[in-house]
């Protein structure tokens, strides 16, 4: 991360996931990075989007350590106990929609609210959220996956709106929504069959490269892992 100061400090939420853990490992290997905090449901402090109070508690704990130059919210839910991605309107159910929005929208939004305040005000800083290309309204050509699409589209709006406010208080900061592509992970495994996605290490490297190339004027954008700017 050449765009951040020497001795920068990085914070990964969702560090137990495939992409989050790969990002944390690559940042730990960067000699310019002074510290990496890898947060998950089992870390200390813990962050659990099913226990929303944990977000503020973790942010308050890490604030005591000073500013964090890179914050990545690497979380997401596609399927679970409440169901799988809906193929038809008739498949919609309230429990799955609520779970999708809790994990994909509400939790990241509260993390954005609390952890964005840990970015330095007078140095370069980056805050990124893992979104998904299927959350693009303009790129939606196939339909389906109602709850996942809607929850990621809502996350994109929250990120964009936050970037406008942050530009006034943290003028050197960049906020970005990221599309990692299809990655070999627990999230995508049930839908890939014999076809394997990209390795998490490759996805993590590509996403960090994209973030490293962004400038404050790019804040609030939606970017694919190959550097393509995606439509909302």
From TrEMBL:
One of its GO terms (cellular component) is cytoplasm. InterPro entries: Fungal_SecMetab_SDRs, NAD(P)-bd_dom_sf, SDR_fam. Transmembrane segments: none annotated. The keyword Membrane does not apply. Pfam families: adh_short (PF00106). It comes from the Bacteria. GO terms for molecular function: oxidoreductase activity. Keywords: Signal. Residues 1-24 form the signal peptide. The keyword Hydrolase does not apply. This is Oxidoreductase, short-chain dehydrogenase/reductase family.
């Amino acid at each position: 991360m050449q765009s951040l100061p020497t001795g920068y400090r990085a914070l990964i939420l969702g560090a137990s996931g495939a992409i989050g853990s790969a990002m944390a490992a690559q940042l730990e290997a960067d000699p310019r990075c002074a510290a990496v905090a890898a947060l998950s449901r089992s870390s200390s402090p813990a962050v659990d989007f099913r226990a929303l109070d944990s977000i503020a508690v973790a942010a308050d704990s890490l604030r005591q350590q000073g500013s964090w130059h890179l914050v990545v919210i690497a979380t997401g839910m596609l399927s679970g106990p409440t169901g799988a991605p809906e193929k038809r309107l008739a498949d919609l159910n309230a429990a799955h929609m609520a779970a999708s929005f809790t994990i994909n929208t509400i939790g990241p939004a509260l993390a954005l609210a609390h952890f964005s305040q840990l970015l330095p005000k007078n140095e370069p800083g980056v805050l990124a959220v893992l979104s998904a290309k299927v959350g693009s309204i303009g790129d939606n050509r196939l339909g389906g996956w109602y709850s996942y699409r809607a929850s990621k589209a809502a996350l994109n709006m929250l990120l964009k709106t936050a970037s406008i406010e942050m530009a006034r208080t943290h003028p050197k900061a960049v906020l970005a929504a990221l599309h990692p592509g299809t990655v070999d992970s627990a999230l995508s495994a049930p839908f890939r069959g014999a076809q394997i996605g990209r390795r998490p290490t490759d996805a993590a490297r590509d996403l960090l490269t994209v973030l490293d190339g962004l400038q404050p004027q790019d804040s609030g954008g939606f970017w694919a892992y190959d550097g393509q700017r995606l439509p909302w």
